[in-house]
């Protein structure tokens, strides 16, 4: 059996889940020269994902940042499929499906049955325990977190998360792979809820929402304060909308349930907006209304 511990031997990357994150991961991998098998059980989502990639790659050509031939070659390297069995051809799989433990465990159980035993199975989870996901497989030493950030083609970081049984060889392989994708890595040495970035980000977003609830400042002014006073590229309300209010809620709630620390408790305003169908930029309305210019709801 050939071991695929060495990042250099990874040629084909499987991506399970063709939402925003899966699309960004697939696009980044294809541009870096990997063959990509992009799988989502919903064929329409796969088609939309490939169309989105095409759109971004064309923009890069228009801006003179990518040669036309390279755009065509990158897109040709992506094979979209709605059949998970096609992932059997991958040398490493990154899972980027819905952020639910039951769904992830089911997916990893299936991947474990499909993929060659030496293949590393990585999860792009932003908070769920890698150890718990890995327990659904017979290869917990080859299960690891590879947490990308949105928009994946632009953001430099990948958090590598070690589960309880993740081997050193697996960590080394995914660090090497991230480098080949043009990314910087940090290692979360413990499988700790929220890893590094969300442990810091979520209390910040929650605190901004509490400022709003207390009537201290408007979202516009909180965003302006953080952008101009801290030099963040986006203020917390714009970022919360960008991530998706449902995702923010889910991650905060998970952190709160794990740590029992009120710092992480999702603010009521977040729940209210979600109940009102405002999920952020993805559906045009969150803290701001994107259909009619940035405006507080
Ligand atoms: N795919 C590919 N390229 C994209 C893209 C996408 N989805 N979105 C933007 N880009 C590219 C643009 O084409 C543009 O490229 P060029 O520089 O080559 O022209 C570049 O990114 C910058 O985009 P814009 O000029 O449109 O806008 P901007 O300068 O305002 O930057 C931003 C946009 C990169 C999103 C910036 O505002 C930013 O960095 N925001 C913070 C993002 C952030 O914090 N992300 C992490 C969220 S947390 C997370 O993801 C993890 C979690 O678990 C919740």
Description:
By secondary structure, the protein is α/β, with parallel strands linked by helices. The chain has two domains: 7-188, 3-Layer(aba) Sandwich (Rossmann fold), CATH 3.40.50; 198-289, N-(1-d-carboxylethyl)-l-norvaline Dehydrogenase, domain 2. Helices cover 45% and strands 13% of the residues. The chain has eleven helices and eight strands. The chain has helices at residues 20-31, 43-62, 68-76, 101-114, 130-134, 168-180, 197-213, 219-230, 236-243, 245-259, 268-275, and strands spanning 12-16, 35-39, 78-81, 92-95, 120-123, 143-148, 157-162, 184-188. The chain has an eight-stranded mixed β-sheet with strand order 3-2-1-4-5-6-7-8, sandwiched between helices. The radius of gyration is 19 Å and the shape is globular. It starts with 11 loop residues before the first strand and ends in a 22-residue tail after the last helix. Residues 293-297 have low confidence and may be disordered. The structure holds acetoacetyl-coenzyme A. Acetoacetyl-coenzyme A binds at residues 24, 56, 59, 63, 65, 126, 149-151, 153-155, 198, 233-234, 239, 243, 247.
| Structural class based on helices, strands and sheet pairing | alpha/beta
The major sheet is characterized as: 8 strands, mixed
Order of helices and strands: EHEHHEEHEHEEHEHHHHH
CATH superfamily caption of the largest domain:
NAD(P)-binding Rossmann-like Domain
CATH class of the largest domain: Alpha Beta
Global geometry? globular
Estimate percent helicity: 40-55%
